[in-house]
Amino acid sequence: MALLATLLVAVSAPAVVASAGPAAAGPPVQKVVQLGDSYSAGNGTQDYVPANNDCFRSPMNWGGQFAASQGATYVNRACSGAVTANITGTYVLSGVDITKPQVPFNQTIPGSGTFTEADYVALAEQNDVCPTPSLPDERYSYSAQSFDFNSTTREATGTILCSPYMEPQIDAVDTTADVVLLTIGGNDIGFSTIVEWCFVFQSATNCENAVNAAQSKLPALKTAVLDTLRAVRARMRPDAVLIYEGYPYLAPNVPLMLGTYNANAAVRQLGDAGSEVQRQVIAAMNGGWCTPRTYYSDVAREVFAGHELNANSGADNSNAWFVKPFTSGYEVSTWYHPIAYGWDQWADGVIQYYDTVPAGFTCSIPASVPGAPTGVTAAPGDGKATVSWTAPGSDGGSAITGYVVQQSVDAGTTWTPAAGSPAGPTATSLEVTGLTNGINVSFRVAATNAVGQGPYSTPSVPVTPGAGATVTVTSPAASGSQISSNGYFGVSAVSTGIPAGTTAYVTLNGSAKASTTVQASGAIRFDGTAIGGNQWIPAETGTYAVRIGGGSSPVLATSSTFTLVIIPFGLNGRSGNKYTVLPGNFSPGTTVYLTRNSATVASGKVQTKEQPFTITGPTTPGTYQIWVASNQGRVYGDHAGVITIP
Fold this sequence. Notes:
By secondary structure, this protein is an alpha+beta fold. The chain is 18% helix and 32% strand. It contains 9 helices and 39 strands. A 6-stranded mixed sheet has the order 3-2-8-1-9-13. Strands 22, 25, 26, 29, 30 and 31 form a 6-stranded mixed sheet that branches. Strands 34, 35, 37, 38 and 39 form a 5-stranded antiparallel sheet that branches. The radius of gyration is 32 Å and the shape is globular.
């Protein structure tokens, strides 16, 4: 159910805040995908396909009729009772009497030894004993309703309980969708509780509490809906546009007095507050990228105006287009949803509104100042320091024209221009001269473009210029070294002018990630060898360097920076008992292990470097992940791409 919003995401349409305009042919539509809750699924149509499906999906909802009017393929993944999190995550059906098949399963177990209930459930799942689900996105989790094992005859007998759950609705969205329809939010704030206490049982205290609770949840709902819409948009073609339609009022504009509390007025005011949340979500979605941006329409309110249910005792509801509670032949989950005729009228309104949607739009990104450079470090020398940085992630839409470098000798209280500043537009380092040996100095960097100067970076760790102190990284040999994500890597460096026993650090974006000590030879090792301790470093994306000193001690020297290319490694999805693995940078033939709750349940071998492959494993509920053991005994991929089966 959705009290707040109907969301119509249409590809190849513009996005301007507007009401219905002159009639025109909308963009051509070949495929429509519907997501969301009961106001998308079709509760109340009484025409469900397949019959008696627990999601109450119907081709006669407003989305199905819209798709039919366009001659388009229609995919319905909306489900009664869905909340915002169900769009992007798996979920268990709620709010209806869910059918949980119970399947007798008897097997003779070969071999010897114990055979546990967990073994029984896993064997049933491998044999796929649960029936075929009625919905394409429905799955079963397995558990034992009963279980017995005769160790003499080795007969395992019992009953498997097949508990249904749904795949994320968003899985149905891809770039082939021309239109995506979505309603969501009402269940997040307690729609059914409001209907129950305000209109069905009419308790003033409980009604007021339910409305107030819903009002308090609107800020969190705004964030959840915004994140969900962004996730849906990310799967669609870049020309996707959002048409946001308000819901009909659930109560007429007449008093419903529960004592001194006007329930109708309170629920209508909640609907108005929800509409304001919709507008704020759309404003945040637009963000100034495209003009025009999005439509906001009150088509649904216009269609249902004057046809709301009046919950006053004895009221005439012969002209209402919603299911009245306790109406014979209608399930509880359909109450206060449109009847078939109401769905028809809603569909007609959406069809007419879509005809006003132009077929094209343009985007232009207004330029702004660049972002802040990152990973600023300084390597001291004799009366000088080499300042290094990474270009900002955004140039603001206008090419970077240079970098302003400033220095501070009083812990950031005052800043002055560094010698040689500004640096050129492609520079990533600057040698700053004229510094005083023995005096700590830190640096910060800002990028400039045609619009102006962007924000300064986080200051570098202070360094102390002096004669003869240097550190040079010898491994990795160059920036761009390939490391599997969630793996580990080693660093080797050589120093001069540094006393043995001085603390050395590997830094990531200026922050220390590991430490060791400088050897008498000047060698510095972070690779699990006897020299320098057993310090492997977790691989992360960013800018690395080796720093001598720091923390409570002066920085004596800092190396030039280097970066890593992180090759994805981990689980990347599941279809039934097939688990997709991203093999990272591991070589063909490397064994990859699939675990459930930390116990190995299956394995496979890398076929081609960096190319995904599948491992066949169980689908027993639990937490699944993969790992690879290196020849040093380190574990790669721990917690990479975790999949949880409820």
